[in-house]
Amino acid sequence: MAISTVRALASPDLAARDKDRLVRVWENIKPNSCPYTYNFHLHTVCSDGQLKPEAVMKQALQVGLQGLAITDHHTVRGYEAAQSWLEEMRMRKPECLFPHLWVGVEITARLLDTNVHILGYAFDPEHPAIAPYLQRVEYKDGEEARAERIICAIHQAGGLAVLAHPERYRQPAKLLIPTAVGLGIDGVETYYAYRKTNPWQSTPAQTETVKKLSDRYGLYNTCGTDSHCSNILLRL
């Protein structure tokens, strides 16, 4: 399937349906949802990962994932290639059960004078508001880099915005999350391996801190391995 066909699939109506489906999943995310059921933080060779998008999808199928998102930095090319592979495989093997793939991206932003990463999901990648952030360009300062600007762009494109790994930054989650809430953030990456363990496991202390803040502000909880390596089950 051509990339243009994949882009056509990412219509506003499809993005809206994907958003509703994603919300239903996030409402039931548990500590053990990742990495064998869902994985919402993955990278490919289209940014700084080691796997081709097709290889990510093959591993997702082998693992038995129900759903995932490829969140390359400042590009959806990995998603497009993976979606093309997925559609082709569905036509070849209609009897097989394939994981659901959500459109995703990871965008660098400035929040409290700190560089943070904001994950966008289930948006329309053809929407003009999000287009400047999908050109493989990282805005390090200026209006374009402000977290509120990026969150707004994701929302305008019909998507959901999530603060990635909130306890990895110079500023602590207890400051970043309330500020992000004031800017309209939808969720936080609650279940995350701050230590690069094998097997992957969310780090208890940081998870507890983020989960309490998430509960306090009524945010969605997400999970992901943040894999940049040759194994989607690991952050190594």
Content of β-strand: 15-25%
| Relevant CATH superfamily | Metal-dependent hydrolases
How would you state the average pLDDT, rounded?
A: 94
- What is the end-to-end distance? 32 Å
* CATH class call: Alpha Beta
Task: Give the low-pLDDT segments.
Answer: 1-9
The coarse silhouette is globular
The strand count comes to 7
- The helical percent reads 25-40%
What do we call the CATH topology? TIM Barrel
Strands side by side in the biggest sheet: 1-2-3-4-5-6-7
Encode the helix/strand succession as letters: HHEHEHEEHEHEHE
CATH architecture: Alpha-Beta Barrel
Number of helices: 7
Q: Return the structural class.
A: alpha/beta
The number of domains? 1
Rg: 16 Å
Biggest sheet record = 7 strands, mixed
Summarize it.
With 236 residues, the chain is of the alpha/beta class. It has helices at 3-9, 12-26, 53-63, 77-92, 147-156, 173-182, 204-217, and strands spanning 38-42, 67-70, 100-111, 114-121, 160-163, 187-191, 220-223.
Please, could you describe this protein's structure?
By secondary structure, the chain is α/β, with parallel strands linked by helices. The chain has a single domain, classed as Alpha-Beta Barrel (TIM Barrel). The protein is 35% helix and 18% strand. It is built from 7 helices and 7 strands; from the N terminus they run ααβαβαββαβαβαβ. It has a 7-stranded mixed sheet with strand order 1-2-3-4-5-6-7, sandwiched between helices. A hairpin with a 2-residue loop joins β3 (100-111) and β4 (114-121). α1 (3-9) packs across α4 (77-92), α3 packs across α4 and α6 (173-182) runs parallel beside α7 (204-217). The longest helix has 16 residues, at 77-92. The chain is globular and about 50 Å long. The relative contact order is 0.17. The model is unreliable at 1-9 (pLDDT under 50).
